[in-house]
Design goal:
The protein is an alpha/beta fold. Strand 10 and strand 11 form a beta hairpin. The strands form 2 sheets. It has an 8-stranded mixed sheet, with helices on both faces. The protein has a 4-stranded mixed sheet with strand order 9-8-10-11. Helix 5 (135-150) runs parallel beside helix 6 (175-188). It has 2 domains: 2-129 and 240-276, 3-Layer(aba) Sandwich (Rossmann fold); 135-237, 2-Layer Sandwich (Dihydrodipicolinate Reductase, domain 2), CATH 3.30.360.10. The two termini are 13 Å apart. The model has no long low-confidence stretch (mean pLDDT 92). The chain has 9 helices and 12 strands. It is globular and about 65 Å long.
């Protein structure tokens, strides 16, 4: 049985919790979590003891984690953290996981991923860090990257525009938009602008259903030339696709930990091996 703890107890943490409660076959969610402050938080039927970011809080969390895993698995540390926290906490949490040899999955965006990669590669743990954990989007991005690497400059005659829409609380530009922009810039050899939309009134006009204004991810990639226009659209409603991907990533990290294969992994690595552990 894989034991999981949350790092970040916001909307995504809630979705991960609900998904685990619905599928308890191979994953157990521990009732302790890392959070922005010390508090007790109820998610569904689970009451979480949350520990804040201060050093003493983290020490208490580690002591509690050791007690919980010893109780559940007789000292066999099958435990993986799932982090959906905040851009400001991202690197701090990566450092904490690496220093305390806690394998983890991170879907948080908006921090220095190069520095996070360096920390993981210098550690002794496996980790998956991915700006997008929706498996379908990851594979579509991989296909666009392949085209960009195989045919750089092939779309020189096209002008590209990217528009992305997310819930109002998302402060940073979409990581998916930035990743695909780099590939489209290879294909066109032109700079590409990203327009970010956070205004619910505009999102309503764009067709985002009202119940998903607080949780959606829309991307439009528009390639336009003389007498031709191509549009690639990604539309995600809610947070369930990302939660599903994070659990697949947690299973992958657990397998890598058992095999003593530490390292920095991405969702593409997870998808290449998904059939081995599902």
């Amino acid at each position: 049985m894989l034991n999981v703890f949350l790092s970040g107890t916001g909307k995504m943490g809630n979705e991960v919790t609900r998904l685990i409660e619905e599928n308890r076959e191979d994953i157990n969610l521990l009732d302790i979590a890392l959070s922005g402050r010390n508090e007790t938080k109820k998610i569904g039927d689970l009451e979480l003891q949350c520990f804040g970011p201060e050093p003493e809080d983290r020490k208490r969390f580690l002591r509690k984690l050791e007690d919980e895993v010893d109780r559940l698995s007789n000292g066999n540390y099958d435990v993986v953290g799932i982090d959906f926290s905040t851009p400001g906490a991202g690197l701090q949490n990566v450092r904490f996981f690496c220093e305390n040899r806690a394998p983890f999955v991170m879907g948080t965006t908006g921090f220095d991923h190069d520095e996070a990669r360096r920390m993981v590669e210098d550690s002794s743990i496996p980790a998956v860090i991915a700006p997008n954990m929706c498996k379908e989007i990851v594979l579509l991005n991989e296909a666009i990257e392949y085209l960009a690497n195989m045919y750089p400059g092939a779309f020189k005659d096209l002008v590209v525009r990217i528009c992305e829409s997310h819930q109002k609380r998302k402060k940073d530009t979409s990581g998916t938009a930035k990743k695909v922009r780099s590939y489209l810039e290879q294909l066109t050899e032109n700079d590409v602008e990203i327009v970010s939309i956070r205004d619910p009134d505009i999102q309503d006009l764009l067709g985002v259903p009202e119940k998903y204004l607080d949780g959606h991810a829309y991307h439009w990639f528009v390639l336009k030339g003389k007498n031709k226009k191509f549009i690639i659209i990604y539309k995600i409603h809610g947070r369930r696709p990302y939660a599903e991907g994070s659990l697949d990533a947690a299973r992958f990290v657990d397998v890598k930990n058992h095999k003593n294969e530490p390292g920095y992994y991405e969702m593409t690595d997870v998808l290449r091996e998904i059939g081995k552990y599902r």
